[in-house]
Amino acid sequence: MSMIHDFGRRFKLTRRDLLARAFNGLGLLGLGDLLASDASAADQSLNPLAVRPPHHQSKAKRCIFVFMAGGASQLETFEYKPNLEKYAGQAMPKMSNLKGELAGKSNFPYVVFPTRFGFGQHGQSGRYICDLFPHLAKCVDDLAFVHGIKIDNNNHGPATLHMNTGSIFPGNPSVGSWVNYGLGTSNQDMPGYVVIQDPRGAPMNGADVWGNGFLPASYQGTLFRSEGSPVINLRRPAGMSREQQRLEFDLLNRLNTQHAAARQETNDLEARISAYELAYRMQMEAPEVVDLSRETAATRQLYGLDNTTTAGFGRQCLLARRMAEQGVRFTLLVHGVENKKYSWDDHGDIGGKMPRHAGEVDRPIAGLLKDLKQRGMLRDTLVVWASEMGRTPFMNNIPPSKTPGRDHNQYALVMWMAGGGVKAGATAGETDEFGLRAVGESIPVHDVHATILHLMGLEDDRLRYFHAGRWRQLTNLGGNVLQDIVA
Questions:
Q1: Cβ atoms of residues 218 and 282 within 8 Å
Q2: Which residues form the domain of 294?
Q3: Count of H helices and E strands in the chain?
Q4: What is the pTM of this model?
Q5: Do residues 212 and 349 make contact, with C-beta atoms less than 8 angstroms apart?
Q6: How far apart are CA 257 and CA 276, in angstroms?
Q7: Could you tell me which of 461, 475, 299, 285 has the C-alpha nearest to residue 372?
Q8: How many domains are contained in the chain?
């Protein structure tokens, strides 16, 4: 499309005119699709965040994506496997069809070890939930689980990118960027895509987790801080009035527009112009959105803001609800810092660390689900829980450690979804008796992404962007919607 655009400018034709006049030559290339994409691109160049109609009607209007950085153990959260207790201390049976790091580890005498924590059945669905999550267990009938998800790499960096961008390589748009690109946002005074990371630090890969990749820069996530000024450098300089600032922005926009008019590839500049305008509007609205002082004592308690253990993630979850109320299309919450002390990467002492992880997030995430539901917002808000990988059912140490942990496991990630369009209480996929890998075919990440897009009203094979000589999409070569969890 960029070649057509350049040719059209050179000869003072719009891309639409050029394509119309070249109908016979381009007919075999699917002219209707190109025209539709061209019209969409033209609309987005005028206002990249303008509301655009979904590909099909859907219940979900916004998404809150909750990411547990470090590889949350499925065996201490949502996978109840009695055989871990039955075969505790025995050599792990050799498993076939493994590749890479896990295939190598299967040749060593690692031993099975059980979780230190109990599991109980909850709700009408009778779903097993680890006792570390008593608050989330009360919401279990609103959740749909996906078991046996396969990640394409067994290391944190590539795996984190795979879950958040659909590729193990950097430079690709995040899920939120694709959703923002496809639907725009209803509140033009707020970003369409907001990121609220762990107040203790950034996840593995940092801003690449919420980057725009090859999509225009307007679609990247905007990092919000959970306390103080929501965005760094958002406030006006001391002594400058709003009127003075407006005059400066008007001058800057005129200069930028003149500069762009004489050039062909101006996506970054157009995004910067849009960002300046958005920042100007956010100065009025964003500080109020992150001001939690107006919330009732009951609401603050629901999210755990009255407890030092839960207050950090509780603020993140409460801010996510406020973002949803303000029409923000996609909000990413990150719990965990790289693969260090505060991440879910428990290679050692998983029995001691898991209570801390779960204790920090259980009450806040349950509070978010309950709050959305009682406000009538869960029906049109998609909530997704994810991590970048699962963990192994065998001990991470040879010889066995007194404080064992679990290793990386790219074959057994467990996720859940709730809210708009999700079939509450449903299940997709299944893992083996040890929770090591899927029974039958693994569920690839691109099927999960295709399902998220579908629930948001977007069709994976229609949400495309022309880059590096071909049409690109979130799932790369396509994904299948997990119909088992779609209402």
A1: no
A2: 49-228+290-485
A3: 15, 15
A4: 0.84
A5: no
A6: 13
A7: 299
A8: 3
